[in-house]
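User: Quick sanity check before I run a bigger batch. Here is a single chain. Can you write out its predicted 3D structure?
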Amino acid sequence: MVRAIIYCRVSTDKPEQETSLSRQKAELIKLAEKYNFTIAACMEEQQSGYEIEREGILKMLDMFSDNQAECLLIQDETRLGRGNTKIALFHHLNKLKIPIYTAVTEEKLELSESDSMVLQIISIVEEYQRKLHNAKIRRGMKKAIKDGYNPGKNLSNITKAPGRERAAFPIHEVIRLRNNNMTFEEITSILNGMGYHVSKATVHRRYKEAKNT
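Assistant: Done. Predicted structure follows.
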């Protein structure tokens, strides 16, 4: 069963806007029923669409990153955000491979040609930034190995039984990269390039442990 997050937003905190929130929610519940989606959460906010630091948005993105839901339901694209905020959220959701459905069309959201073009440009720039970053990491690792660094020593609890070693890697760097909206797959790739041979599942688990301490 596909789990969906319902996101409703109005731009002001006037009491009459609560009616609009209720209407949005009702329409999106019907949309979820149409596709037999299970509603994992419902976010309702009264904030400007130009503001990206919205509690509902941050909670929604955390749930998607933690695989607690697989799709997003909104009334229309302006409810998600406006201007650069909208583009940034579209880009992030696209990286997480989260489909968006709207109550207006009752189908998957089709981006405008201009929005699609902007997202393509952002993706190309990010890819080259990632390549440059990885190249710098490889260059640094080669120099470190030449100077005597041994990646095979990146294990803690070395005295414990074989096969139960706990991989050591800089969790503070993982947290920093997550705060920069990088996916766990991207972070794992970077760690592997640094000589920390860990899986995405391990990185995700240790990140959650660190956040809960």
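Residues 113-146 form the longest helix (34 residues).

User: Great, the batch can go ahead then.
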